Amino acid sequence: MSRTTRPLNLLLAFVLAVAAAGLIAGPATAAVTVRTYETDPVGQVPSGCSTPSGAASAVVSSTRGRASARSLRVDDPSTTTITKIACPRPAQQGAELSFYAYPAALPNGFMVDLLGHQKNVTGEQPVFHLVVDGNGRIRWYDAANWTQVAPAGTVPLTKWTAIDIQVPADMSAAHVYVGGRYVGDAGPVGVRALADITGYQFSSDGTPTSGDDVYLDDVGYGPAVNTPPPGSAPFTVAPPVTVDQSTTPVQMPNAAVIVPHGTGRRVLLAYPAHTDSSATNGTRFAYSDDMGTTWVADQAANPMPDAASYNLTRLRNGDVLAVSYHTYMVAGSGDLKAEVDSSVSHDGGATWTTRTGMMTTPTAMRTISSVTDRPGSPLGGFVLVHPVVEDPDGTLYQSGYGYYADDTKYRQIVLRSTDGGLNWTVAATVAVNPNLTTAAGYEGFCEGALERVADGSLLIVMRIGSYLPMYVSRSTDDGRTWSAATQLVAGPDKQSVVSVYPSLSLLPGGPLVLMVGRPGLALLTSPDGSGRTWTRPVEADYQNSANGVLLPTGANTMMVFGDRGANWSHPTPDPYSVWSRVVTVNR
Q: Domain named Sialidase: which ranges (predicted)?
């Protein structure tokens, strides 16, 4: 075997020059052992590596090398066998894997894995699982679906391309560089916490596909890289603080607000305490008087302890408004009315007045679910999500989604209230299109996050399905009409943003911030506050159910909230928990 070592004391100018020339895969780091295969026997598996059971061997080849005569060849001529090589290393916290790839033929793709162990899960397995597909895209797998890291053409055919995968010691994500340029992040398989990293492996795309032929050279492996990638510069994300934990579900926090308290401020947070089902209900309530350093459970102050979920907003007059997520069909209304439960506090959340109003639709609804959390009361046609947006005259706008009677996919609407959030009418349908896509997971437009942005327009970001692109629409006439929904794209490569439960807020200092979920939770910012251009998504936290909420706390600061998995997560969280993080938008 042939190995070299990158020393720590390289002159900075030299490092930058080499990186700029594309001669190394990413930023200079601690010593990384690089394998060139020059003394490994041709036609053999390199020493220190092995062929996993049932796989065909990847072997040393003299057909080509990046800067020498030999390389490692992953050639897959078979429709029944994967070509694979595994290279174990001592267990460590975090890692760096760098290499050059030359796809001679790539009809399908090739896989790159970091191996290791998940916490509380027996057995070694891929803990970061990436693919370079036949179009030259890089994607990663979270045990449920694939998410794009870099677009088509990132890794071209018949050309040596430097790829560097850097995992910090906390093993929360893998930062991916191509040709020395940071292109994005990959999360851990299963979005689970990791115990260690124990090596790496390369493989062909799988069976029954065949025809992939890839050469790998200058394969480097070394310790964790803890330097944040340049693309994360818009945000500084603090470590998580536990808000609550339980042996029974506490998950998907989606309601937070700041109120005056004494000489300071108090953060109020509500979150569901039941399984993710329309037939279950119950919420918990907590507060923090030190901006998230510590949290106190306060169920006695919970405005809606028996609701499935609810949204919180502090209004311009200082009142705090809680609006129930579920609505309930009104018998005898021709399915044109649904009850809306809400609660109002005039004293910063110390006491609450509960009430029931109505939402009225211009077209008959059909119930959003065949089950209900209130026996004898069918759910209404729409659920209400996210905080309300308030105009100076007190007009309130509320996001909702669901069904009119003839809808086959979700319809995204905006409702309007002129009586403080007691009663609601439909201001407009933002988007509905049952034929937008043939993707299997298409649900329709839903979960719209609504905000009044810097240019005065109303902006809404919407889900259409798990792992599918998000869509955006804008209104310049106070919600009466909306632009045609278009895909939300971000970053220098204009990649589509995916996929569920967006949370959107304009910070007092000017930036518009968006948090999106699945996989994990990621943050984007529109620096001018308009929402017309967005920075690349940056990991906030990957190990969660992908449902969370953000809350502005200052000119350029906010808190984000999430969980450690839902009742459907595998393995089941033990314990369930809800967390907060402080985030700064760097300007």
A: 326-538
**Mean pLDDT, range 325-354, rounded to an integer:** 99
Return the number of other C-beta atoms located less than 10 Å from residue 418's C-beta.
14
Domain check: are 350 and 220 in the same one? no
CA-CA-CA-CA dihedral for 74, 77, 82, 88, to nearest 10: -20
Regarding whether 420 and 440 lie in a shared domain, the answer is: yes
Strand partners, 533: none
Preceding amide of 519 cis, omega within 30: yes
The rounded distance, in Å, linking the Cα atoms of 227 and 224 is 9
| Torsions phi, psi for 12 (to 5 deg) | -60, -40
User: E strands within 106-141?
Assistant: 109-118, 125-133, 138-141
Dump pLDDT digits (tens) for 353-382.
Answer: 999 999 999 999 999 999 999 999 999 999
Euclidean distance between CA atoms 232 and 184, whole angstroms? 9
Residue type, 16: L
List pLDDT tens digits, range 201-234: 999 998 888 999 999 999 999 999 998 887 567 8
Q: How far is CA 380 from the centre of its chain?
A: 29
Mean residue pLDDT across the chain: 93
Residue 110, domain extent:
3-232
Antiparallel, parallel or unpaired: β 538-541 and 521-526: antiparallel
- For residue 507 the two structure tokens come to 């910070």
Question: What is the sign of the dihedral through the CA atoms of 316, 319, 324 and 325?
Answer: positive
Omega before residue 253 within 30° of 0, cis: no
